[in-house]
């Protein structure tokens, strides 16, 4: 049976998996996904680690070892997560080498509790990179106002970065220039910039969920005019993809700029847009809509396991990243129509706050569940 994930690769898009656990590594499933199914990178986050570690006995021996060594709970968590990240990096190392450092990366996020602290983010990113000791690890940093100066510095340090939680086109553009500024700083010091990689994780389904909720609330109140109702319904499930297509147009402008061209001449790698939050939340939408509509060159799509299976089975693969671009601009502009009246900037701000919260809560929950295990396993 044809695997549509392999078809996507022909269009210059890489498929990464948004999932990581020790079971996946030890069972050989990750190796199989990489060697045979077209997966060429891994993204993780605090919610993924909570799901992997909490209540899973596969980690108990290492937790016990941490308890015996007198490690605090946070350090026990790090020992578990870092071990999984290193092992995943080793499985993906051949992809990293074959692609000349384009793919083969495994992402791990700095603690989400420091999302608004620039210096703490820089310090932790440096420590993570050094302690993990793998060239093909990417340190995830949220694209907050405090995060972007950290991105610039960490790139200047020669560390690969996955900038996460990008929702608005403006935040993506700011992230791209932070990457460029970091490379310029490093190049000005006479250091090699050819081995640094970065992706800009641009979120999708959460945007539609938020806007669809606002539209449903308007419709539920009752709309007298059938034209107004049609306008509202025309927006549902369309904003995230339109927003992503506009971001890609900005990407094209950035890589044509003199600043980028000067870096490219020194061997710099483009910071690719990575489509994140790609599982469809509304069951009435296609389960692969955030894949089908955004295939295009020099991009990455990171998919959770269920979307990987669905896409391998029935993605309709074609290069669509630059189709209906004018319609995308019009759709975003139409949100300002008094009959629709959705403030996109406000939505993006809401989503960033929620996004950090969606990482902080599982991170704290994981610490709590680990603390419980530590107490159970500690000698009396």
Descriptive notes:
With 380 residues, the protein is an alpha/beta fold. It has one domain (4-377): Alpha-Beta Barrel (TIM Barrel). The protein is 57% helix and 11% strand. The chain is built from 17 helices and eight strands. The chain has helices at residues 4-9, 22-26, 29-36, 46-53, 60-68, 73-98, 118-132, 147-156, 169-188, 205-221, 226-235, 239-256, 258-264, 289-292, 305-314, 325-334, 344-377; strands at residues 13-17, 39-43, 105-109, 137-142, 161-166, 198-203, 272-276, 299-303. Strands 1-2-3-4-5-6-7-8 form an eight-stranded parallel barrel, surrounded by nine helices. α9 (169-188) links the parallel β5 and β6 (198-203). α5 packs across α6, α10 runs antiparallel to α11 and α12 (239-256) packs across α16 (325-334). The longest helix is centred in the C-terminal third of the chain and has 34 residues, at 344-377.
CATH architecture heading:
Alpha-Beta Barrel
The end-to-end span amounts to 56 Å
Tell me, briefly, the overall form.
globular
- Unreliable parts: none
**Total count of strands:** 8
Q: How many strands, which pairing sense, and closed or not: the largest β-sheet?
A: 8 strands, parallel, barrel
Q: Give the class from helix and strand content and strand pairing.
A: alpha/beta
Looking at the structure, the CATH topology is TIM Barrel
Proportion of β residues? Answer: 5-15%
Helical content class: 55-70%
Report the CATH superfamily: Aldolase class I
CATH top level? Alpha Beta
Radius of gyration: 21 Å
Overall mean pLDDT stands at 95
